[in-house]
Amino acid sequence: MERIMGRADTPVRRVLNYAASHFLAHLPIVYVLTVVSMNADGNTVVRGLFVGDDDECFHRAAELSFKVNFELVPKPMRKAVVYLDPQEFHSTWLGNKAVYRTRMGLRTAAN
Q: What is the reported pLDDT for 88?
């Protein structure tokens, strides 16, 4: 998961793009993407709305999402405590999201 989360160019995205261009090109598909993040008050707000019929729509949304939803750490973390907010994580499966994010910080900073 850590190899693809937060990245726009992934093997999964390449398969989806290939399928769209080779099997769905005859359809009038329009992509509508929203980018959301928390504001200073802790409320979720829309940061961007992207509408288009090509890859640029996705890449522009991904670029903004990276800017507003990622916090890069300047040096490796040796230990981390993961808090699962019960308002956001209602199951163990969803709780894994917090673990993935923490592992990304440990791995990313260490590399």
A: 74
